[in-house]
Design a protein that fits this description.
Residues 137-385 form the Saccharopine dehydrogenase-like C-terminal domain. Residues 4-133 form the Saccharopine dehydrogenase NADP binding domain. It holds the Pfam family Sacchrp_dh_C. Helix content is 35%, strand content 28%. It is an alpha/beta fold. It has two domains: 2-137 and 346-370, Rossmann fold, CATH 3.40.50; 142-336, Dihydrodipicolinate Reductase, domain 2, CATH 3.30.360. The strands form three sheets. Strands 7, 8, 9, 10, 11, 12, 15, 16 and 18 form a nine-stranded mixed sheet that branches. Helix 1 crosses helix 13, helix 7 crosses helix 14 and helix 13 (339-356) crosses helix 14. It binds NADPH dihydro-nicotinamide-adenine-dinucleotide phosphate (NDP).
């Protein structure tokens, strides 16, 4: 029996609330709060059980503190935007509330994707006797757990890690992103970075690609090297890792649109003066693009996200691939969202469930791979994200 405060009523927030309602023995009191209260109420109206809703500006610590003091949650699930991570962590410390998120903090004026701002809270969470779980989505999140599971069950030492994220779905729109467009485009247009020979190697965005043959009939797709935040924590916490890379598929159509938008400056986060007003081109572009939440009924096909891992077991080289396949339409039928929101929201609920039931515990700030992967792997199979492994 516990009280959970969910902040953010977007695509992911909606899935988290739906999934928490499926486990009332853990999540007995739920509040959904966001900047726009109407969005919380619209989600609440779809649920099988009653939840509370509230308006909060999560950039304002005082507003968060007032809300937490009145609702008294045991845990706050932050599925607003990465910009709000630190203010929500501050409020959690002030109110004695445990914390979970799905994306690392980013300053608004720099697309940085680094954990150091949140790792700096380690001592404060430890002293307060609280737990902060960082990156409990799919990637980061399940990919970190997959890697920890591989180390626990398959390898004595992991040498190479390739995280490969494929969205083989189609929403039929000329151009749309399947999660928050501003965050998505900042991520995709940032330089690629991977770990090799104990250092980071940086290459221009989307300049390295190769074909990868995805399982279960998805088939060969072009994957592009990118930087993704879980590489930073995994290279820190998985000993002996010689190479770590993150790859994602993009359709030619997506890349063509992105190239034009970049060339004309529409993806820039530098403010420009327009009609006496400062606007940020990428934020304006977000206002024009389809709301990712609206893609749910339109998106068909599947996602396939997994880890391809090479390493040593009993002195011999070995390869291991662990992945999940998720069907967009099945997600929509279950919770009214497409698979990208679903694959993020389900692990957020599972991380919360493990914290609230005391299966995952500790004081301080944790990345997913620092905790026992076994209970998380078990819950994935039970709550909608079954995984498979190929051992060679
Ligand atoms: P959306 O843009 O759909 O939703 C974000 C929600 O946060 C909106 O309801 C928005 O309110 C709310 N919000 C924004 N600013 C504030 C604020 N200052 N105070 C209160 N609420 C605020 O994003 P998604 O649901 O797609 O993504 C949510 C999070 O999940 C992001 O951090 C994203 O990076 C992360 N993510 C993680 C993935 C993973 O695998 N780890 C994959 C995909 C996403 P309003 O509606 O009023 O704008």
């Amino acid at each position: 029996m516990s009280r959970v405060l969910i902040i953010g009523a977007g695509g992911v927030g909606s899935v988290v609330v739906h999934k928490c309602c499926q486990v009332p023995e853990i999540f007995s009191e739920i509040m959904l709060a966001s900047r726009t209260r109407e969005k919380c109420d619209a989600i609440a109206a779809q649920l099988p059980i009653a939840i509370q809703t509230a308006r909060v500006d999560a950039d304002q610590v005082e507003e968060l503190v007032a809300l937490m003091q009145s609702f008294k949650p045991d845990l706050c699930i932050n599925v607003a935007l990465p910009y709000q991570d630190l203010t929500i962590m501050d409020a959690c410390l002030e109110c004695g509330v445990n914390y979970l998120d799905t994306a690392n903090y980013e300053p608004r004026d720099e697309a940085k994707f680094e954990y150091h701002w949140q790792w700096a809270y380690q001592e404060r969470f430890k002293e307060a006797g609280l737990m902060a779980l960082l990156g409990s989505g799919f990637d980061p999140g399940v990919t970190n757990v997959f890697t920890a599971w591989a180390l626990k069950t398959q390898f004595d030492e992991i040498r190479e890690l390739d995280i490969i994220d494929c969205n083989a779905g189609d929403h039929g729109q000329p151009f749309a992103t399947n999660f928050n467009p501003e965050i998505n485009i900042r991520e995709v247009t940032a330089p690629a970075r991977h770990w090799e020979d104990e250092q980071w190697v940086e290459t221009p965005a989307l300049s390295t690609s190769k074909d990868f043959d995805f399982p279960e009939g998805i088939g060969p797709r072009k994957i592009y090297l990118m930087y993704h935040e879980e590489l930073e924590s995994l290279t820190r916490h998985i000993p002996g890792l010689e190479k770590a890379r993150f790859w994602m598929t993009f359709s030619d159509n997506y890349l063509r649109h992105l190239e034009v938008l970049q060339n004309i400056g529409m993806t820039s986060i530098e403010p420009v003066e327009y009609n006496g007003q400062q606007i940020i081109p990428l934020q304006f572009l977000k206002a024009l693009l389809p709301d990712p939440g609206s893609l749910g009924p339109l998106t068909h096909g599947r996602t396939c996200i997994g880890c391809l891992i090479k390493g040593i077991k009993d002195g011999r080289e070995k390869e291991y691939y662990v992945y999940n396949i998720c069907d967009h339409q099945q997600c929509y039928e279950e919770v009214g969202a497409q698979a990208v929101s679903y694959t993020t929201g389900v692990p957020a609920m599972i991380g919360a469930m493990l914290m609230l039931s005391g299966v995952w515990s500790g004081h301080g700030v944790f990345n997913m791979e620092q905790l026992d992967p076994a209970p998380f792997m078990e819950k994935l199979n039970l709550h909608g994200l079954p995984w498979k492994e190929v051992i060679s």
